[in-house]
Design a protein that fits this description.
The complex is a heterotrimer of chains A (311), B (179) and C (434). Chain B has eight helices and no strands. Chain B is mostly helical. The two termini of chain B are 15 Å apart. Chain C has 434 residues and is an all-alpha fold. The N and C termini of chain C lie far apart (50 Å). The chains are: A alpha/beta (311), B mainly alpha (179), C mainly alpha (434).
Amino acid sequence: SAHAATQLMIVTPWPDGNFQAETLKTFSSAVEEATDGEVILDVHAGGELGLKGPELLSAVRDGIVQGADMLLTQQVGEAPLLGIESVPYLTRDEEDAVLLRDTAWPYYEDVAARFNQKFLYTVPWPGQGVFTQQPIQTVEDLAGVKLRTVDKNGTEFFDALGASPVQMPWGEVVPALASGAIDGVTTSTPSGVDGNFWEFTDYFNKLDWQLAPDVVSINLDAWNSLTDEQQQIIETLAREMEPQFQQVSKDEDARNAQVLAEHGMQMSSPDAAMSRQLTEAAQPQWQQFREAAGTEADALMTRYLEARDAE
Amino acid sequence: MISRLLRLSDRLAWASAALAALALALLFILMLSEIVARNLLGFSLGFTWEISGYLLGLIIFMASSWSLRNEKHIRITLLRENLPAAGVRWLDLLATLLGVVIATFFSAAFIGFCLQTWHSGTVSSTPQQIPLIYPRLLMALGLIVFTLTLIVRGVVLLVDPAWLDHTPDDDLTPREANS
Amino acid sequence: MTAILLTVAALLVALLASGVWVGLGLAGVGIASLEVFRGFMPVDKLLAQTVWNSTTSAELVALPLFILMGELLFRSRLTQLLFDGLAPWVDRIPGRLLHTNVLGCTLFAAISGSSAATTATVGRITASELTQRGYDPRVAAGTLAGAGTLGFLIPPSTIMIIYGVLAQVSILKMFIAGIVPGLLLAAAFMSYIGIHALLNPGQLPPRQRGLRAGDYLRALVQLGPVALLIGFVIGSMLTGMATPTEAGAVGVLGALVVCLLQRCLSWKSLWSALMGAAQITSMIGLIIVGAMFLSVAMGFLSVPRTIADAIASLELAPLALIALLLVFFVVLGTLLEGMSIIVMTLPITLPLIVQAGFDPIWFGVFLVLVVEMAQITPPVGFNLFVINGITGMKIGQIARAVLPFFLIMVAFTLLLAVVPEIVTWLPNHLQGRG
Ligand code: NA
Ligand code: NA
């Protein structure tokens, strides 16, 4: 092509080889091919650019980078509405999760515009469960379990369930599990495999108590510097490839669950009774989210719950 | 005049370092409390990790001026050691001026960072949801004092470098050290 | 890319040679090169965010705590007891009290996470005492500078914590992997001291006369408090009372108890320990900030990727790759501080190494050794600075005295490349535990 290529720097906090980083690279290749090399998404993985996660929404707004793959739950310090999918046990199954994702998307787009950017597509992380040294079949089994949690939701949710939530940096988790400083960790199956959790824990209950979506976002000034045709190509690609990337996440979950099982871990999911108890325990957080995250967020939650319960 | 300026600057640097020392003591107490709470009382204090991180940032910048004054910050002296005495003074002045330029960029960047944090009311994404303006403002203060200390150092070098030969002792307040 | 590399190199040499404080200088190079080559981006915003991210990171919290522990112990008589306790036991070994430097540093390395702290604490006691007892001060300084580097290799280790976080490997495994190489290296140092003493008997004072069984027993008793303190800190980690970072706080607690029992804890000494530790933390922190920002700037300028591609395109055999990297790191290490070397080069080197079939844990130990070498090579070497501060000896003089130890470390690193099991055996052996 006669045009000079437009090069956009896109950052992802996840290391090379992680499925979020890899799907982003796939997207980047597709964009380069479809635009005949006119638009190049230059993906930098694994914190090479010193950006860790919670600052990505503002980093893209300020044009430090032209785009980012960001974990939405890490952006709640700037935009609380983006935390809706991480509200505990708001979705009970895959069907709920899809409904919430679709309902929330237009609201997300408004937030993105306020932060001078455009969200292209979203890929969820596999659902969060609990790795523990003792079986968790009922809520009562959680009593007093020293469980490492990450965010406000998790800490208050598991506190309400009777566990003893502990916070510590990820770098300390494996030593702490090995020495017995903590009894368990709440995270997803890929993290469990990365940390060789079968060395320290025997049980994984996939509570699916929280969703953690990543969003790929692009700075609006960078976006507006593209031609209409280029914008259209990228939007189309994002729409077409999103389901494919979401499937990669599911496959990743299944593959890692199998690895855990092969190492002798006992896998389970909550039964109907436990599911009810989880919903009940989550109510204060639902209410808190409505009150603290703004009127838009409140409206979004109402709309989702009405749609869900109308089924 | 110069001695008064230097004494004022030293006092500011000492006060800032004293805050850093208190921050270090607090960091130790927090960590210890978390160990005791988790092992003996059966609950986690949670906030200790996040606060400890902020305290570390505070220590680094709040103590930097006093470290500078006590020549604790590392610099390469190879060229300096091989220069005649008159050259050393001008080289030191050059290094100090370069330091002032870089430190001013740091301070300006951090003031901008604080303003933005203030405007958007950013809180941390941790369970504590701490308004980030407080720790960031304190770090900015440490950086500003550091920049001022460098500027005073430059002025003193220009006028009479002999004043800098006497570094204030850690255990004394600046007034006692200089008398 | 050539223009970028030349600019960065010229700026680095100019700023550091002028005597700008290292942390500021590194950041200055990063700021200037971004302003020149990526002038359209908000460099100030990136700087503020990087400073914030690097100085408030939970991974570094152990650092000020271990430094504080060292400052407290320095004000106690613990180190004095340690060396009085070791003296009779090494009297029959060629080199005699010179071994106290290696043994003392090995023991201190087990409670302190940093080489500078280990060198400073042990050096305060030995440097003057060895000279007083008639040992050649150059040999004493050389053994101290060499053995002080064990602080990073023998756990706990701040460098290993940083590596573990950056490379996403278990810090616990890193710690375990450092034990065998650390002890072997200490043994190699002691062998050298012994051989050197046999060849140069004139540099040693006459032996102690008439040591009796009672002297050995009394010496053992004197070693008691040190053993208890080390056992206390390590025990808190192994029993799950404390995580590796929290062990820093346990160490401070232990040091406070030691000071209290020895009646050397006053408000004044506590305050001066806090002020001293805050300043050392600030010194190291400022260098970390500068190194982090320079490394981020290099990332934005795609420097690591370009060099990685260049090295990768050589398609070297694993051992040749290690040899090339060793040369690369030793050259970097003459000028740069160890921690910044890891931070700056890991994104380039780790993928290469893993691709060549080496274990990331092994590479971590390799990097720790490289960092230790950087501690003792002029013009920028932390241990050289520390000993310069303690003894007043010229940096060049100390660097010459430590050269044999540097060569031992190079040889040892190559040995680890040929026999990686020295590193990987223990962590793999202990894996099934828990
Ligand atoms: Na150590
Ligand atoms: Na060096």
